[in-house]
Amino acid sequence: MQITIQQSSDLLDSTIEVIHEKLNKLETYYDRIERADVYIKEDDGTAANGYKVEVRLAIPGNDLFAENSNQSIKKGIADVAEALRRQIKKHKEKEQDHQAVNPNTQQAAVMPVDDETDEDIAVSEEQL
């Protein structure tokens, strides 16, 4: 999974490691995550000296998104990762329910072909 981090201020190496660790762990729950976009901003004043952490996971279908405001970036990432884990679980359950209701969805897309003879396929000289 590709992880891009956009921040309003410089981050410590340990913070970047925590971000990668927490987000890479999400792949153990769902292996079709394409990328994670992380946005870290100094909070708009709702929490004194806090940070707003937002993460968008690109997966097939609709993306997953979570945000958290916290005094600590690391705690914010942990909370966002947990929220995304719950969303992934819910997404997988919906996916499995959909497949259980329609187990032939992939097979229905492929229409069975009746036995065709070469005469049915061949183009006569009159048709040319």
UniProtKB/TrEMBL annotation:
Pfam families: Ribosomal_S30AE. Residues 99-108 have a biased composition (Polar residues). Residues 113-128 have a biased composition (Acidic residues). This is Ribosome hibernation promoting factor. Residues 89-128 are annotated as: Disordered. Keywords: Translation regulation. Associates exclusively with 100S ribosomes, which are dimers of 70S ribosomes. Transmembrane segments: none annotated. It comes from Neolewinella antarctica.
